[in-house]
């Protein structure tokens, strides 16, 4: 499918696409192109649909806490690996 932007840079998606994938999309810029990825109205429902019942017994607050902790660990790890000012 090929679409052009209008004078304001908008792209109009056909009704069939909107009915299949929804009205909200994340635009991802890649080195050679851009991609549209549908965004679920409820991201947790989308996650559960993608992974089945792996999180069926897990509450949203628990998922958020675990995600925040994982991000914190990653940031601390990157900070430890970064060269200090003046050190080469």
For the report, how would you describe the main beta sheet?
A: 2 strands, antiparallel
Instruction: Tally the helices.
Output: 3
Q: Any idea what the shape is?
A: flat
Query: What's the multimeric state?
Result: single chain
Number of domains: 2
**Average pLDDT number:** 82
Across the major sheet, the strand order is: 1-2
Kindly report how far apart the N and C termini lie: 50 Å
Structural class: alpha+beta
Strand tally is 2
| Low-pLDDT segments | none
Query: What is the helix/strand order?
Result: HEEHH
Into which percentage range does the β-strand content fall? 5-15%
Q: What is Rg?
A: 20 Å
The helix content, as a percent range, equals 40-55%
Main attributes of the structure:
43% helix; 88 residues; 2 domains; alpha+beta; 11% strand; single chain
Describe this structure in words.
The chain has helices spanning 15-21, 43-51, 60-81, and strands at residues 25-29, 34-38. 0% of the residues are buried. 43% of the residues lie in helices and 11% in strands. The chain has three helices and two strands. It has two domains: 12-51, no CATH class; 57-82. The radius of gyration is 20 Å and the shape is flat. It has a two-stranded antiparallel sheet. With 88 residues, the protein is an alpha+beta fold. Strand 1 and strand 2 form a beta hairpin. The mean pLDDT is 82.
